Amino acid sequence: MRRPLLPAAAAVLASALMLAGCSSTGGLRAEEAARSAAAAGGGSGVTTPRWTFAMVTHAGSGDSFWDTVRKGSEQAAAKDNINFLYSNDANTANQVQLVQAAIDQKVDGLIVTLAKGDAMKDVLAKAEAAGIPVISVNSGEEYAAKFGALTHVGQDESTAGKAAGAELKQRGRRSVLCVIHEQGNVGQEQRCNGARAGFGGPLQVLYVNGTDLPDAKAAISAKLQADASVDTVLTLSAPLAATALQAVGDAGRAAGSTETDTFDLSSQVVAGLKSGTVGFAVDQQPYLQGYEGVDLLWLYKYNLNVLGGGSPVATGPQILTAKDAPALAQYVARGTR
């Protein structure tokens, strides 16, 4: 049974989030130029109709990763003269209701995540019937074409997992604990399975509750105390990486004996790369996922362009290590990496 649409979520979807300004070459200079243009009352850089695009994600609240996705979307929307609506809910039934609300509003385009893809099948069929073009981002690449999406923007999670596994092997790790923080998330399962294939050595999976970080920390620590053979913790998000670093200390492991590696970036992860407490991070460029999700919809509406040729538009994986940390720091700090 579907839950009724939460009033707060409906209010979020109904509000338009606009950035006035223009973007040229990207980077810090373009961002500063956009702020200056906005302050001066400048408009977007295109003259196409003011279409309305809605993005509906499976993100929870207060997640810096999704703040970065959203920032990319908002900046592309400002450039493309788009009225941009953003809403999110980690509860799959509520995400479905948010997509339905966007369809009911007769938006001109939809950007969705498909972390638990099967649940989105019926509502995306309604979007297709209503003539609303859809692009999927981040999660659920395997569902995109089946559910009528123009393309998928993100990284192939199995490929990303294999890249992480290969890096673990190259670094001489012996036994890996892969921590899944959202049970039922297909992409996270694919990351761990890919890491196992790329690593070729012992890899165990530990399920924790990513919405309860103290409980997750305790679970990781208990596993490390129970199994002395584990010399590496691989987490699937930046917040869990910080939690794992604490868990390694709580488990009484000697400094340098247990490596923490992760997917995704944050200021803490970059600091860890610099200090050596984090060995490497797998970056999927969330800003780019949000930016391209909006931009590709605009290109389709304007010129019937579709990128990918039937294959996803890849934004990752990129393996980042200590040598990359100094250059990354400024972009992570401003929330675009």
Could you explain the architecture of this structure?
This protein has 337 residues and is α/β, with parallel strands linked by helices. It has 2 domains: 7-155 and 285-306, Rossmann fold; 157-283, Rossmann fold (3-Layer(aba) Sandwich), CATH 3.40.50.2300. 46% of the residues lie in helices and 16% in strands. The chain has 13 helices and 12 strands. It has helices at residues 7-14, 27-39, 64-79, 92-104, 121-129, 141-144, 157-170, 186-199, 213-226, 238-250, 267-275, 286-303, 325-333, and strands spanning 52-57, 83-88, 109-112, 134-137, 152-154, 176-180, 203-207, 232-235, 259-263, 278-283, 313-314, 318-320. The protein has a 6-stranded parallel beta sheet, sandwiched between helices. InterPro entries: Bact_Solute-Bind_Prot2 (IPR050555), Peripla_BP_I (IPR028082), SBP_2_dom (IPR025997). Belongs to the bacterial solute-binding protein 2 family. It is found in: Cell envelope. This is Sugar ABC transporter substrate-binding protein.
Helix-strand topology string: HHEHEHEHEHEHEHEHEHEHEHEEH
In CATH terms, what is the fold-level topology of the largest domain? Rossmann fold
Share in helix: 40-55%
Q: How many helices?
A: 13
Oligomer: single chain
CATH class of the largest domain: Alpha Beta
Distance between the termini: 38 Å
Which properties best describe this structure?
Rossmann fold; 13 helices; 2 domains; single chain; alpha/beta; 337 residues
